[in-house]
Specification:
Blueprint lengths: L8 H11 L8 H8 L9 E5 L5 H8 L5 E6 L2 H13 L6 E5 L12 E7 L8 H11 E14 L7 H10 L8 H11 L2 E7 L1 H16 L3 H8 L1 H19 L3 E9 L3
Parallel strand pairs: 1-2, 1-4, 2-3, 4-5
Antiparallel strand pairs: 5-7, 6-7
The chain binds S-adenosylmethionine.
S-adenosylmethionine binds next to helix 3 and strand 2.
């Protein structure tokens, strides 16, 4: 079955009010910097899985000096924004956005120096197949650096988490830190490292909700309409408790392909 667009123009417009232009996930450039801490991207060929509206991919070339960045996504509306962003920054030659189908990535073995992803792998339920594929397309010695939204366990979601997942209504396939760690190790990654970002995002998300209900309310309505603004406030009201109990736990993920 074809993938149905979930990140439509209205949703994207609202998220960018909260998270910044080009960003469909929390933390903006500073959080990207924390994921990439200690890595030098100059001259590298980089893949961004689930690139969304392209803010990160563009910054990997413009700010981090990557020689070439390919962003992939399964949805057309976000890719239209991303391509426009690269064009406006004069980066068309270095930053390319490609539509892919869910499943194996359409790249040759040993093609990338770095595979990056921010808060998109949550949409890919088969973590084992995903990390095996990331391992395949990385050059020997290549790095995997990402963040993603995890669940603290692989059992049935608690009522609080269930309520959040139902309110969000996106096609999520979440895994626990243990599952990610096992899947990365099984794929052959070395130096596997996971960093729990729950405490950080619980604090940030509470503030986001306060802003959404207060100082950013009118801006949200202007960008995406009142119904979309209120829908998102409802999502955050369900999400903050899931963060507060630790069950929704964004993590940074790191690994290195031997070689
Ligand atoms: C929360 S957004 C994050 C976008 C971007 N990484 C950012 O941080 O701004 C998740 C993105 O993953 C994309 N996505 C969903 N399923 C995917 C898949 N199987 N492969 C690649 N991208 C996917 C969505 O279309 C969406 O653009």
């Amino acid at each position: 079955m074809d993938h149905e667009d979930e990140y439509n123009e209205t949703f994207v417009s609202y998220l960018e009010v909260i998270w910044g232009e080009g960003y469909l996930s929390p933390g903006g450039p500073a959080e990207v910097g924390r994921i990439l801490e200690g890595l030098d991207l100059k001259g590298l060929k980089v893949l961004d899985i689930g690139c969304g509206t392209g803010g990160v991919a563009v910054s990997l070339a413009a700010e981090y000096g990557a020689a070439r960045v390919i962003g992939v996504d399964v949805e057309d509306p976000v890719l239209t924004f991303a391509r426009r962003r690269a064009r406006e920054r004069g980066l068309e030659g270095r930053v390319e956005f490609i539509k892919v189908k869910p499943g194996p990535l359409p790249f040759a073995a040993n093609e990338f120096d770095l595979v990056f992803s921010k808060d998109s792998m949550i949409h890919i339920p088969d973590k084992e197949a995903l990390f095996a594929d990331v391992m395949r397309i990385l050059k020997p010695g290549g790095r995997f650096a990402a963040s993603d939204w995890l669940s603290s366990h692989d059992g049935a979601p608690s009522p609080v988490m269930k309520r959040y997942l139902e309110t969000e209504g996106l096609g999520f396939g979440m895994g626990s830190p243990e599952r990610y760690r096992r899947a990365l190790a099984a794929a052959g990654f070395e130096d596997v490292r996971l960093v729990n970002r729950n405490a950080w995002y619980a604090t940030v998300a509470r503030q986001e909700l306060t802003d959404m209900e207060g100082p950013l309310y009118a801006k949200g309505v202007a960008a995406a309409g009142q119904a979309e603004t209120d829908r998102n406030i409802g999502i955050w009201r369900a999400m903050v408790p899931a963060l507060e109990i630790g069950e929704l736990c964004p993590h940074h993920l790191h690994g290195r392909k031997p070689g």
